[in-house]
Design goal:
There is one protein chain. The protein is mainly beta and 206 residues long. It has a single domain, classed as Jelly Rolls (Sandwich), CATH 2.60.120. 11% of the residues lie in helices and 28% in strands. The protein is built from three helices and 13 strands.
Length: 206
């Protein structure tokens, strides 16, 4: 997501990626090791229940460690390219809001290209996770997320399946049940944002 005072919805126009794109495949998130299946690293997954304020989701958050190419002078563009070739677009580069929020009209992927950040997922009663450059978080619609503190050089790319538009909800009275209806109507993305059509998301989000 973006910083509090600004909204960046930079549409990434380059939809092609050289077939020789190499991605480093290794996963360690919060001490948990992913298992490789069919060439795709299996992410660490965490599910959060409705807490009465933040709806969260029956789908788990997916946490990938060290799966993007962040070498060179423009790692943000490489993360955007990876997401775009897998049809996660409507991308932006910025930070993550420092208050609990969620989206009801789209799932979201966050790819850290520089620095590190600690985020609380799942609302006030959720869990804290620290991610760093090279890591990716796939956040189902409805799942709360909040920036608890980031390094001075922190940078992240956000994107959405099929380039969907997103809303910004914070658990205020009146958001539901419309938010719940929006969330229930969303399809499972056709592609995993990191590993494409054969990636874990369609196997895990069933």
């Amino acid at each position: 997501m973006e910083n509090e005072d600004q909204t960046y919805r930079r549409e990434f126009l380059a939809r092609t990626l050289k077939t020789g794109l190499a991605v480093a495949f290794g996963l360690t998130t919060m001490g948990a090791h992913g298992e490789s299946q069919g060439g795709a690293v299996q992410p660490h997954s965490v599910t959060f229940k409705d807490d009465g304020t933040i709806p969260n989701s029956r789908y788990p958050v997916l946490l990938y460690h060290n799966v993007t190419d962040i070498k060179g002078s423009d790692p943000a563009s490489r993360v955007q390219q990876l997401f775009a070739v897998n049809n996660w677009t409507n991308s932006w580069r910025n930070g993550i809001y420092t208050y609990h929020h969620y989206h009801s009209t789209s799932h979201e992927v966050l790819g850290v290209y520089r620095g590190s950040v600690t985020v609380r997922l799942g609302g006030e009663q959720g869990q804290n996770f620290t991610v760093q450059a090279g890591d990716v978080i796939v956040i189902p619609a409805g799942v709360g997320h909040k920036n608890l503190g980031a390094s001075a050089d922190f940078g992240v790319v956000g994107a959405y399946p099929d380039g969907r538009d997103w809303d910004l909800l914070t658990g205020q009275p009146g958001e539901r049940p419309k938010a719940d209806q929006n969330i229930a109507a969303l399809p499972i993305p056709g592609n995993d944002p990191v590993f494409g059509g054969d990636g874990p998301i369609r196997k895990i989000w069933t």
